[in-house]
Design brief:
The structure holds two protein chains of two kinds. Chain A is α+β, with helices and mostly antiparallel strands. Chain A has six helices and 26 strands. In chain A, the strands form four sheets. Chain A has a nine-stranded antiparallel beta sheet with strand order 14-11-12-13-26-25-24-18-22. In chain A, strands 6-2-3-4-17-16-15-10 form an eight-stranded antiparallel beta sheet. In chain A, helix 1 runs antiparallel to helix 2 and helix 5 runs antiparallel to helix 6. The longest helix of chain A has 12 residues. Chain B is an alpha+beta fold. Helix content of chain B is about 35%, strand content about 20%. In chain B, the strands form four sheets. A five-stranded mixed beta sheet of chain B has the order 8-9-4-10-11. In chain B, strands 12, 13, 14, 15 and 16 form a five-stranded antiparallel beta sheet that branches. Chain B has a three-stranded antiparallel beta sheet with strand order 2-1-3, covered by helices on one side. The longest helix of chain B is centred in the C-terminal third of the chain and has 22 residues. In chain B, about 35% of the residues are buried. The model of chain B has no long low-confidence stretch (mean pLDDT about 90). The chains are: A alpha+beta, B alpha+beta. Chains A and B meet through loops of A and strand 14 and helix 14 of B.
């Protein structure tokens, strides 16, 4: 194998694939990237952690001799990153156990390789459901749900985003849902063509993170293919394939409160700033903040046995609340995680001080959040 | 100096050279009538019960042990004179004492006898804290009027009652606090009655090695020795500031204990730190599916124990013992405390599946750790709104079982395979 390629082109592809490689690895081959150069001038890079595989094709490499090998992904990335910007990189591998030679200008290095046969291939199988989403739409689905993904191992089926087809007021929608038991996020988009009848799938947290990084670079459409065990995202020259979480997502619809009739509308910025200021007093890890409501009046307060107490009042200028007195407590971060996703005005719908509370953006109702209160 | 006769129980405020009853078993101490904390320890408990049941063994060295773990569980005083000690590996004990009579432990019998002794203690004071099957600490403060006798005499009477009714002997340490009471009980064994008063404690402890203190093990003893401290007297002389600097937060309390001070009260119910259930199989099991059935039964048992104690599990500990006696424990934290068998089981099952790699296991156990208040258990959350209903169902099942017997309601999982 021998080819020459622009440093910038190689670096971009390596940055994508090396990100999937686990830093601490007990299986040496998983630390490597598979490099394949074909006759027609295509260079293909593959990395996997056995759960996720990423394949990126680079065009514009001058392939002198087709072939393939595997080399340490992180090291190769580091070296290429440190080469001069306009450098041309030559990679050469004579085959067998011989090291991979990299040359760029007057720099040369040789890297230990592992046999291509040892590199695990992740078979995609049939992926019958195929649809596309705008990159911006996918980003918005992820950004407004990922904060609620659980990291708890015992309920592994909560360790991802549940993606499925549903119905909202008679309109078919694509829904992304995540919950850790304390909060739940549900975002919906009009159901794209091809997604009708798709199985509900749970996309693992790491896949979500990798996808989100890649989606930043995607300009237009991202194609999604899936079965009930695998999902693939394709855009440009990149294909990210991932196993899905083998579990049943809870029936979340039942925990979304329907009859909450005590409505608070509050300016997002005023509210968020007040929460952050008040919570600063708290020494507990959960930083509980108490909301005391009365007609067009909101008092936020927090107390700590060692540090003292803090409070802030918000009134008619930024608060609209027409119901009777109510007291309810939440973890400060749970509140700001949600208000951080809201632009102008936040709507809270309460039942009472101990029941799940509904939170929405007044201007954008495609996303809905549920928060469990805590005792304060 | 006050005197107590351990045979006729006569108490005199002044020193008497001999008891009118003729007994030489007198306890003399200036603080005798003021001390209330007692440490009671049965002498070579398992071996003593075996000797009681087989009088022909009275003069023979008796070792209770062998069995599963192959170590000495208890040995009589005859065996001790030959160098046998508790927890010694059996082969070593038999090398020291080849003619010993080895008896397999009969834990059910010892537990029954221990309960009889416990009942006798309960008649003395409500401030009773069992420390093990054959050891307890009691505080008899304020009981003198009730018993019509000072604590020292009440304890001597108790020792007689144990000998008469159970047929084994106890050693008693009487002191102003539990630390000194324990040290006292160790000083006069077997069938002893030792007193350590407040006034003499420091001087009495000073020449003793630091390892005399409970809690000073080999590691701490090495650290102390490295600082040139081997005797309790040296610890006593250490100023608090130096104790803190050299031995950290534990330093000052270590110095206090070296002086014979111990602020810990006697607590009737020691708070359980973990609750567990385990079972040993009739034959070794390897398959996850085979191991899951006993695990399920243990989860039900654990759930019941949690219920009885008003506690919940914040996490589960899975315990496995291999055929080769290697112990494996695995822990999983629960997202929220539970007292339901199925939630315990669902948390323990993945741990079990990871360990069931073909290894043969002889024992499985499940424990609740950490413990949490029952009020926080099974309240449910957004991902598990059904938890309160499952809790109500389990309560109903338990109520049915209490009324109609264990077999009244059985989970499919708990049924034996056909």
């Amino acid at each position: 194998m021998k080819f020459t390629v622009d440093r910038a082109v190689l670096l971009k592809a390596l940055a994508h694939v090396q990100s999937v490689v686990e830093r601490r690895n007990t299986i040496p081959i998983l630390a490597n990237v598979l490099l394949e150069a074909t006759k027609d001038g295509t260079l293909r890079l593959t990395a996997t952690d056995m759960e996720i595989a990423i394949v990126e094709e680079v065009v514009g490499a001058a392939v002198a001799q087709p072939g393939k090998t595997t080399a340490p992904a992180a090291t190769l990335y580091e070296i290429v990153r440190k080469l001069p910007e306009a450098a041309k990189v030559e990679l050469q591998h004579p085959g067998g156990d011989a090291p991979l030679a990299l040359r760029a200008g007057r720099f040369a290095t040789s890297l230990v390789v592992l046999p291509v046969e040892d590199f695990p291939s992740m078979t995609e199988g049939k992926l019958p459901t195929v649809f596309s989403l705008k990159a911006g739409t996918l980003r918005a689905l992820i950004d407004r749900t990922r904060f609620a993904i659980s990291t708890e191992e015992t309920r592994y089926y909560l360790n991802g985003i549940y993606l499925h087809a549903g119905e909202s007021d008679g309109t078919p929608v694509l829904r992304a849902v995540a919950t850790d038991g304390h909060r739940l996020a549900r975002v919906e988009e009009p159901l794209p063509d091809g997604a009708k009848g798709m199985p509900g799938v749970i996309v693992p947290r790491k896949t979500v993170a990798e996808l989100r990084k890649l989606a930043d670079e995607a300009q237009d459409e991202i194609e999604i293919r899936l079965s009930d065990t695998k999902i693939q995202f394709r855009f440009g020259a990149v294909a990210l394939t991932s196993k899905l979480i083998d579990g049943t997502f809870p029936e979340y619809e039942r925990v979304i409160p329907r009859g909450n009739d005590k409505v608070l509308r509050v300016d997002k910025k005023a509210f968020e700033d007040a929460v952050n200021r008040v919570a600063a007093i708290s020494t507990e890890r959960s930083r509980p903040v108490k909301l005391s409501l009365d007609r067009n009046h909101l008092l936020l307060s927090a107390a700590s046995p060692d540090q003292g107490q803090a409070q802030e009042e918000l009134d008619g200028e930024v608060v609209r609340y027409e119901n009777g007195p109510l007291e309810i407590g939440f973890q400060a971060r749970y509140l700001t995680d949600i208000t951080g996703l809201i632009e102008g005005e936040v709507e809270f719908r309460f039942a009472d001080g101990s029941a799940p509370t509904l939170v929405q953006d007044v201007a954008k109702t495609d996303a809905l959040y549920v928060l469990m209160p805590m005792r304060v | 100096m006050a005197t107590l006769c351990r045979d006729c129980l006569r108490v005199t405020a002044e020193d008497v050279p001999a008891c009118p009853c003729g007994s030489p078993r007198l306890v003399r101490h200036p603080e005798l009538l003021r001390l209330t904390v007692a440490h009671v320890d049965c002498d070579a408990f398992y071996a003593a019960i075996e000797k009681r049941d087989r009088p022909e063994l009275l003069t023979r060295p008796v070792i209770v042990g062998g069995g599963r773990r192959g170590v000495v569980a208890a040995c009589c005083y005859v065996a001790r004179t030959r160098g046998v000690r508790s927890a010694m590996p059996m082969f070593q004990a038999l090398r020291a004492c080849p003619d010993a009579v080895v008896i397999r432990p009969d834990m059910a019998k010892y537990a029954a006898e221990a309960r009889r002794i416990r009942a006798l203690m309960e008649a003395l004071t409500p401030l009773l804290e069992p420390l093990s099957i054959d050891e307890a600490v009691l505080d008899l403060a304020g009981t003198a009027a009730l018993h019509g006798a000072p604590p020292a005499a009440v304890l001597a009477r108790f020792a007689q009652a144990v000998e008469r009714e159970v047929g084994v002997t106890v050693s008693i340490g009487l002191a102003p606090n539990r630390l000194l009471a324990k040290i006292a009980a160790e000083r006069d064994k077997p069938r002893g009655f030792a007193v350590i008063g407040r006034a003499e404690a420091a001087a009495l402890l000073a020449p003793e090695p630091v390892t005399l203190l409970p809690g000073v093990g080999p590691a701490l003893a090495r650290r102390l020795a490295a600082a040139g401290i081997t005797r309790l007297g040296q610890l006593q002389a250490l100023p608090e500031r130096d104790a803190l600097a050299r031995f950290g937060e534990e330093g000052p309390s270590l110095v206090a204990r070296a002086r014979g001070e111990d602020p810990r009260p006697v607590r009737p119910e020691r708070e359980a730190r973990s609750i567990s259930a385990e079972t040993t199989f009739e034959r070794d099991l390897r398959e996850a599916a085979e191991l899951e059935r006993p695990l399920w039964h243990l989860c039900e048992k654990l759930a019941r124990r949690l219920g009885e104690k008003g506690l919940a599990a914040g996490g589960v500990v899975l315990k496995l013992k291999t055929a080769g006696f290697a112990l494996r424990t695995r822990h999983a934290r629960l997202p929220a405390p539970t007292r339901l068998p199925e939630t315990l089981f669902e948390a323990a099952r993945p741990l079990l599946r990871k360990e069931a790699d073909g290894t043969a296991f002889r024992l499985v156990g499940i424990g609740a750790q950490p413990l949490a208040p029952a009020a926080e258990a099974d309240r449910g959350d957004l991902a598990d709104p059904e938890a309160p209903r499952r809790a109500a169902r389990w309560a109903a099942v338990e109520a049915l079982r209490a009324r109609f017997g264990e077999g009244a309601v059985v989970r499919g999982r708990g049924l034996a395979p056909r």
